[in-house]
Amino acid sequence: MSETSGTILMPRPIFVVSDGTGDTAEKLVRAALLQFKEVVVHVRTFPQVNEREHLARLFRLAARENAIVVTTLVRADMRKAAMELSKEQRIRTVDAIGSLLGQLSDFLESVPEGVPGRMHRADDAYFQRVAAVEFTVKADDGKEPRLLPDADIVLIGVSRTSKTPLSVFMAHKGYRVSNVPVVLDRPVTDEVYTIDQRRIFALTIDPGSLQEIRQQRLQTMRMTGHSSYGAMDYILAELEWADELFRRNPAWPVIDVTLKAVEETAATIIRIMHERGLDVDGREPGQL
After folding, report:
1. CATH number at 12-120
2. What are residue 202's DSSP bridge partners?
3. Which member of 20, 28, 190, 285 has the lowest number of beta carbons within 10 Å of its beta carbon?
């Protein structure tokens, strides 16, 4: 309820309609919504819309709820139907992929196939991503040093520098990732120095942010007051230990993950790999 007007703010409905999973369109809508402050919306995603009658039902529903419709329909006939229904129901509609397909068609001098679900089909790239996830789970937190030579990317950093979530995120893009923890007064496994040093990335973080993250972790585990893990003097010593390790290995790019989303850190790593001419064929760096 608004304090100034005393009225209840009802969420504005946004329909995301796709002939695939709808993930791409929903992410696009939510990215755009981040540019608007203090808005109340309800985003509803409708996947696998492949028939005109299904589309018509959704547009009638959108009309009743006074919603805006965002579509990612790759079939030309479905995009045409959406535009017709939009005019018929007087619904504001955004075709989030039609214009791009048209421009790419002109640029590439080729006609799009218009086959839904291409991003999520069970092809070789899909099975590569599955294998990458399986590899990354096995290689998490330095559990299997023998797997390090087979990793596309190796992450090194102290605890709670987003090594595991970053590894999993990149694994879903097809990268085999291993991560190695840095612990105060303990050397990292010798296998780290036997692999391609260009594939190793060091992660660091601001001490204050790290303390906050660790203290939240301790509270979750109900271990507050029983560990030096979240103490600032221990954190400073551990980060200095890690920094000294990184200085001795200048081939490892040091990435500060303070307040960064894993997507941003992943994009930085992929950019550096491209600059180094490392093999990234078959992966999905463009979707990071």
Report:
1. 3.40.50.2300
2. 156, 254
3. 190
